[in-house]
Write the structure tokens for this entry.
Amino acid sequence: MKSPTVSVIISTYNQPKWLSKTLLGYQYQTFDSFEIVIADDGSDERTKTVIEQFQTQTALRIIHVWHEDQGFQKTTILNKAILASNSDYLIFTDGDCIPRNDFVAVHYQKRAPNAFLSGGYFKLPKTISDLITESDIEAQACFDPKWLLYLGLKKTFKLNKLCSKGRKELLLNKYTVTKATWNGMNSSAWKQDIMAVNGLIPECNMGERIANLGNV
């Protein structure tokens, strides 16, 4: 089997319902040369069951990295997931973040030498999150502002950034830039650069830790 071009590292802890919706998002990516490494901070059997279902019933390449629950050890399990990854470029996200279908593609296209990428996220009310189905993810309806407003989402300026394309996207990216900090739900970097700074350090600002890598 050909080695993946990108590894998507997803952190999770006892949220099987949301992890399932997140993994559904990776079934419909426009870029398919990637693997998923799940950094599991000690979840119970429910999470394992969800992962095994996706491993056996979909084409997704998933590695499950788990350790015993000993309190909040997210950076420790992330470091283990980094070591378990099989590609040169790593994307980091959380197990309750459904990716837009170009999520992996955008990170891959915008990667640059000696740099990390930092993106944002759009937080939905739980009432709306509960309503999102696989068909909504496949059709990308859950990224459609009109669909979200119909379900009761309050209108904000940030809604403009959710699925803007073309000139509007360029303008928003230029004038509403995400801060160059390490955002665990939407960041990416070269594996060799992360390894060069000894990985993720507990209780440390990752943005400061890899500041020498530059930013975009």
The first strand starts at residue 6 and ends at 12. Confidence is low (pLDDT under 50) at residues 203-216. Residues 74 and 164 are 32 Å apart (CA to CA). Residues 45-57 form the longest helix (13 residues).
